[in-house]
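Subject: sequence -> structure tokens, single chain

Hey, anyone have a minute? Need the predicted structure for the following. Not urgent.
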Amino acid sequence: MSTFPAELRELIWRANCDLPDAGLVVGTSGNVSGRDPVTGLIAIKPSGVSFTELRPEHLVVIDDSARVVEGDLKPSVDTMSHCLVYRERPDVNGVVHTHSRYATAFAIRGESVPVLTTTQASLFGGPIPCSDYAVIGEEEVGREIVRHVGDGSAVLLRSHGVFTIGPTVTKALRAATYTEECAEHAHLALQLGPVDPLTPEVVLASRDWYLSDYGQRPIGQGA
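Reply:
Had a minute. Here:
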């Protein structure tokens, strides 16, 4: 009997499968992990397994020290960094890693994605930061994520790709999707000439509106 919740395992599997479907990865690159807030156990994509062949039972269950608890496959090469993020950020229960094209182009240049749209202002509250270079496969990447993400949800890893975090797997995946959209919009706009980023006042107003008014309230609560 697995100690990891079947429903959460299914959600993490589907989130992994969503990465190539959304054009955020190619081949076997990229991964999604999720933490069960009850047991603290983490399920993550196995290393080098094709998304088309991936099944829920292939996910590797680990503790936050990267010790394998369930599974016969080797976990992702990014496992140590995922674990560091989970240890340092108890509010995070989902981590997504992609190599999406436009965001990675900014990462190659070592540049943050400037905040040029109200979408980015609302969702991320400012520029999407770019970290320093870090060696893949160790905790160093996780340290860069924690150091640069602040109260946001996305970090570009210098010369590599994108990491996003969230209180749930679904929200971390959503952040990865919008990171790429914002990077694409910024790239295309900058091809036309210099663009002034949104003012801090506009960014703050957009963020406040998003946090207070966007989406649905439970029935019977509010207008």
